Amino acid sequence: MTAPVNAELSASLDAARQDYAALLDKKLKLDLTRGKPSAQQVSLADALLALPGDEFKAADGTDTRNYGGQQGLPELRAIFAEALQVPASQLLALGNSSLELMHDAVVFAQMYQLPGGQRRWSNEERIAFLCPVPGYDRHFTICERFGIEMIPVPMTADGPDVAEVERLVAADPGIKGIWCVPKYSNPDGTTYSDETVRRLATMQTAADDFRIFWDNAYAVHHLTDEEVQVGDILAACAEAGNPDRAFIFGSTSKITLAGAGVAFFGSSEANVKWMLHCAAARTIGPDKINHLRHALFLKDYDGVRAHMRKHRELIGPKFDAVLRIFDEQLKDIATWSHPKGGYFITLNVPDGCAKEIVRKAAEAGIALTPAGSTHPYMDDPEDRVIRIAPTFPSLADIEEAIAGVATCVRLVAYQKLTS
Amino acid sequence: MTAPVNAELSASLDAARQDYAALLDKKLKLDLTRGKPSAQQVSLADALLALPGDEFKAADGTDTRNYGGQQGLPELRAIFAEALQVPASQLLALGNSSLELMHDAVVFAQMYQLPGGQRRWSNEERIAFLCPVPGYDRHFTICERFGIEMIPVPMTADGPDVAEVERLVAADPGIKGIWCVPKYSNPDGTTYSDETVRRLATMQTAADDFRIFWDNAYAVHHLTDEEVQVGDILAACAEAGNPDRAFIFGSTSKITLAGAGVAFFGSSEANVKWMLHCAAARTIGPDKINHLRHALFLKDYDGVRAHMRKHRELIGPKFDAVLRIFDEQLKDIATWSHPKGGYFITLNVPDGCAKEIVRKAAEAGIALTPAGSTHPYMDDPEDRVIRIAPTFPSLADIEEAIAGVATCVRLVAYQKLTS
């Protein structure tokens, strides 16, 4: 049985089919899959390539060339303390990837009892994490690898549906964590409201070793003059009498060099001590020369902010182009996020269309993040969310690719509406 | 009851007491605890501090500043393939610490089923590792942290007592690994004989996922013109039909910069694939710029060898001084290793004296690696082995410190012999 089709829809489908045929003829080869900085962006930090130069002593006289210094270079920790809202004394500067630190925190929690916990997670019958959706696929992969059950929670304009979070964590002692990208979230650009931050910090949890994995990946990655602030989760947790609740992660991967940046872990004194104890069996210390290199290059928090304004100059026009093209072409059939920072735009297409749109785009040579990636187990139940990553390609390529994506959206949506 | 004391011993004790009193008066503050390069040694690689300079493209055109490249930079892997006896295609260049890689290999084996295994180690009732003694304390710490039982096996002049190793691994399916420092071993400088390597590769193991943790930390760290070779364990395992048996580790920590070097993992294709699968949930890739920096600096394997000769010029005299002072002062009461490479000298004192000697040295301001550190659970049953790490202090300090250690050995040994 087919639904009645009106003439207007039918004309729209015909137009989309023609546009898609023309798109195929272009034989594009464009990649919008990952949140990767462009060559121009990483070039902004090219001065790092010749640093530290003649210098190898830290401010406290430490020879950065030798072993030791598990906490990382103090002057670099000081620079990022304000950005990540963690006192420098509780902030560790470590390797080149915050994903590593999140992964290892989950691994360590399985191997070593957390502060406040009764046993190691590996000795629990069941471990679950709350996963605000849409969210970041690499968070979900960590859970999936270690058999941690993922419970989706819908994102709202204020962050995860906090009433639902409160209800779940209060009732279920198996829920040990929640993944959060609190500012300019991946993929929809949402910043958690102060109320959300406060309730996450104060809520009752059935688990006594519940942890908020606060992946502040886009802390300084503004796209507007507003420089949006997010509530201070560490302070809020401490005030609420839950000082050990938040693990805070950040990195310079999308500030300086994506492959050769510095990652940070911050938390309560007890959690930092726990992390250092776990790490002591693993390493004699992080690459302090890379820390020194970054400290010399960025200088201070204002230096970080000034550097991020240069990124905005490069990527702002790309985000604007995506939004403009969507606005021109998709107003009647899709919605999308309008991020004030971060690396992504979420495109919400008609239910049941996302997979097919991604497939059609791939056929036209436009690689998109696989539909479903924004959800645990790759399962977007409405098959609706497509993550757009506009930073890496050139502006001209973005324009071409997004026009192509819009064509695919119209084609698939009108096919569905007329079927 | 006291044993009869002859006059000679009594005079020796009196002399040692006087020397120790004079030693205390010097109020020394010297540290021989860790195998740490000196400032002069790390300075040999100061050119790295301004590299890669204007360069950021790898030989294959890859932009090293951006994400990706899980296996590490091909040109750096090629440089270390010969040194570590692993085909470049099976050698990964990763972070700044081989200890991390060993730790993570043990962790991953608990979380992910190894090639050839039937289940993850965490699902086994019991896991044990063979620990040749004397050995490296950080290996033992990894086992201890994860509840892996450690079974000591005595070292011989040819490596671990291989008949004992064969007997143990054939009988006990719980034995999943053995720690090996095959060349210039930590702490006694032994290089495994070809026969030992062959038998480790060919022996029958009750466990089907047994792994040799081949920590080739001193592969190019020669102290003589001989440049000792060790058998190719990976080839030997493959020939014996046990291709997945060996995990090979190495790093440039004691070649270039101790805090900012590059670590390597090499193994069979199946093991490398397994390692990359495990690592893929953890990281988007290692610091390729540090790889490029190292490749530009070291150039090729001959460059590595030439660089190591400069280290030998700096540390050879320190090792010579230790051996000379021991020879002058301890010939009648102790024995010690005569390493042809590596970072340590093992001092074997009379049974039951090591802890007391380390204590006496500490009182005199000379910090030694704690007695027992060379054995699992810090338990040297004969209380006999002291590890001497002569690289970090200046030659003058080494001479002063080792003369002090010799005094402590004589004091404690003669006290024991006359008690």
Topology of this structure?
The structure is a homodimer of 419-residue chains.
Chain A lengths: L6 H19 L4 E3 L6 H5 L30 H11 L6 E3 L4 H14 L16 E6 L3 H9 L3 E8 L2 E2 L1 H10 L3 E6 L13 H9 L8 E5 L17 H7 L6 E6 L11 E4 L2 H12 L7 H11 L2 H30 L4 E2 L8 E4 L5 H10 L2 E3 L16 E4 L6 H24 L1
Parallel strand pairs in A: 1-12, 3-4, 3-6, 6-7, 7-8
Antiparallel strand pairs in A: 2-9, 4-5, 8-9, 10-11, 11-13
Helix pairs in contact in A: 1-13, 4-5, 7-8, 11-13, 12-13
Describe the structure.
- The structure is a homodimer of 419-residue chains.
- With 419 residues, the first copy, chain A, is of the alpha/beta class.
- Chain A has two domains: 2-32 and 304-418, Alpha-Beta Complex (Aspartate Aminotransferase, domain 1), CATH 3.90.1150.10; 51-299, Type I PLP-dependent aspartate aminotransferase-like (Major domain) (Aspartate Aminotransferase, domain 2, 3-Layer(aba) Sandwich).
- Helices cover 41% and strands 13% of the residues of chain A.
- Chain A has helices spanning 7-25, 39-43, 74-84, 98-111, 137-145, 162-171, 194-202, 233-239, 269-280, 288-298, 301-330, 354-363, 395-418; strands at 30-32, 91-93, 128-133, 149-156, 159-160, 175-180, 211-215, 246-251, 263-266, 335-336, 345-348, 366-368, 385-388.
- In chain A, strands 2-9-8-7-6-3-4-5 form an eight-stranded mixed sheet, with helices on both faces. In chain A, strands 10-11-13 form a three-stranded antiparallel sheet, with helices on one face. In chain A, strands 1-12 form a two-stranded parallel sheet.
- In chain A, helix 8 (233-239) links the parallel strand 7 (211-215) and strand 8.
- The termini of chain A are close together.
- The mean pLDDT of chain A is 97.
- Chains A and B meet through helix 2, helix 4, helix 5 and helix 10 of A and helix 2, helix 4, helix 5 and helix 10 of B.
- Chains A, B: It comes from Kibdelosporangium philippinense.
- Chains A, B: InterPro entries: AspAT_Ic, PyrdxlP-dep_Trfase, PyrdxlP-dep_Trfase_major, PyrdxlP-dep_Trfase_small.
- Chains A, B: This is Aminotransferase class I/II-fold pyridoxal phosphate-dependent enzyme.
- Chains A, B: GO terms for molecular function: transaminase activity.
